Amino acid sequence: MTLRKYLVLAGVTVFGAAGDSMLSHGMKQTGNISLHHLPSVILAVLNPGVAFGIVLLLGFVVLNMNALSWADLTYVLPATSLGYVLIALIARFVLHEQVSLLRWLGIVLISGGVGFVAGGPMLTSHPHHETSATAVEPEPVAVSRGLES
Amino acid sequence: MKHIYIWGGILVITLGSVVGDVLLARAMKQVGDVHHLWRRVGFWTVVARVLSNPNLFLGIAAMAVAFFSLLFTLSWGDVSLVAPAAASLTFIGNAFAAKIFLHEKVDRRRWIAAVLVAAGVALLAG
């Protein structure tokens, strides 16, 4: 696997975690939004935290689509789940929140899952079977390139 | 009765997320490796190819269903139950769906990874 692909997966992880954290931070400043006043969600976008969170999550979506173009869904999802761990570590060491023993156990389990999937192949499906009729000319080396890990 | 609503909601969120993830993954596999395409045909052609894929928009629609189901389910149940339950079940559901619909080889290594992450998420968010 190339450095560029590691960077994309790291980007998915960091942008997702940072985006969720910013949204949460911004929405706490905005206050509760009742289900009976859903239009007030639109006003929440004016909060800088929420707006920045949305920009980060857009980055997450683009990088996630990028990763899914060359790696399996069952590889990308566990590999980028370290974002959950990142949020817990930020909560503990930056925001100085208490992290319970059960949550530390959760961190260990997720890290173990990431370790399991990261040791295996990145792509097992065959993209040329999925390629639509409008796609570009066939590229025979694409599969072998995708299998590099 | 309230439990039925909550778990029904969690099921709909999970289904929407799984269908959305699978359709998005299928769309991007149909487009092909964007790094190679970018070099060969240029950035804007890649963007046009991604945006002209119907699976992308079906996937986004499924994710929208999941999002609004989450909003409604949160009005019935606690976030500490709904969010981790839906996230955990989505990891397991995606492993099944990727094997069946995307023909990914979900071997023992990936099953263990999916189960460990699902359990970890449930503990972390619970």
**Number of helices, counting only DSSP H or I runs of 4 residues or more of chain A:** 8
Query: How many β-strand runs of chain A?
Result: 0
* Shape field of chain A: globular
Distance between the termini of chain A: 4 Å
Class from helix and strand fractions of chain B: mainly alpha
Q: What assembly state would you assign to the polypeptide chains in this entry?
A: heterodimer
Overall structural domain count of chain A? 1
Query: How are helices and strands ordered from N to C of chain B?
Result: HHHHHH
Largest interface: A-B, 50 and 51 residues
Helix content of chain B: over 70%
Helical element count of chain B? 6
Fraction of residues in β-strands of chain A = under 5%
Summing up helix and strand content along with how strands pair, one would put the structural category of chain A as mainly alpha
- Using only CA atoms, what is the Rg of chain B? 17 Å
Strand content of chain B: under 5%
Uncertain spans of chain B, ≥5 residues at pLDDT below 50?
A: none
Rg of chain A is 19 Å
The parts of chain A where pLDDT drops under 50 for at least 5 residues are 129-149
Instruction: Report how far the terminal alpha carbons of chain B are from each other.
Output: 23 Å
Mean pLDDT of chain A: 78
Overall number of strands of chain B: 0
Explain this structure to me?
- The complex is a heterodimer of chains A (149) and B (126).
- Chain A is mostly helical and 149 residues long.
- Helix content of chain A is 68%, strand content 0%.
- Chain B has 126 residues and is mainly alpha-helical.
- Chain B has one domain.
- Chain B is 88% helix and 0% strand.
- Chain B is built from 6 helices and no strands.
- Chain B is globular.
- The two termini of chain B are 23 Å apart.
- The chains are: A mainly alpha (149), B mainly alpha (126).
